[in-house]
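User: I'm putting together a small comparison set for a docking exercise, and I want a reference complex before I start. The sequence is below, and the ligand is zinc ion. Could you produce the 3D structure with the ligand included, as structure tokens?
Assistant: Of course. I'll restate your input first, then give the structure tokens for the complex.
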Amino acid sequence: MGTKKLMMAALSVAGMAMGSAQASDKEVYRFMEDNNLHLQDSGFAANMTQEEFEAIIDAAYAIYAPAAKAKGEVLKINAKWSDSTVNANCGRNFGTVTVNMYGGMARRPEVTPDAFALVLCHELGHAYGGAPYIRAASEMSAEGQADYYGAQTCLKSLLPKIEATGEEPSDYIANKCARASNSSLCERQLMAGEHLGTLLSTMKNERTPDYETPDKSVVSRTELSYPKTVQCRLDTYQAGSLGLARPACWFKN
Ligand SMILES: [Zn+2]
């Protein structure tokens, strides 16, 4: 009898000893709002194969496992290729960070391998992206921060591990990256963000965002959930990729 209760008690003590928050199951943060795009999944690969999908996840794991260990945590990244969900999510619970990546996202026509890497970086950004946090106790970064850190820090270290597709940048992107220390890496970062901007605008029935038309709105306090517009998310990818300040459309200094 009482064994289960005892185990639960031991578990909660372990969680407290590691200083991690005892997050509820609901404390899981997604790449984007819940949607019905999984209904469009044919199950056939679009821009990447299952092998490429798994290789990107393995590369990210290799980069972040030491960071997790340094925090006294375990990192798990689940590669759910056969799942049609067009999203991704991350939770931190009892000293374990769990990221779920879905084939439905990888098979979207808008999503290139680099863009998929940015989705994964958004999820890793929730766990390792720093303040502002959605809830300080669990140290899970705000949506805008997950985008910003994902584009700036995570993607910069992950993209060199992923074979480039030879995609040509727009004149705007080529020009923006001309003076970057690694211009081809900078171009890949911005192109990845652009693809996700297109996906998000499809999902939300908003106009396709454009790096050249930033969201000029200014928040009176930091938005911890999704920025109000897809354009604002795109602006955040640009700011992260170019090492600029976080946009005022979601971040309040
Ligand atoms: Zn998120």
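Residues 29-31, 122, 126, 143, 146 surround zinc ion (CB under 6 Å). The first helix runs from residue 3 to 17.
User: Thanks, that's exactly what I needed.
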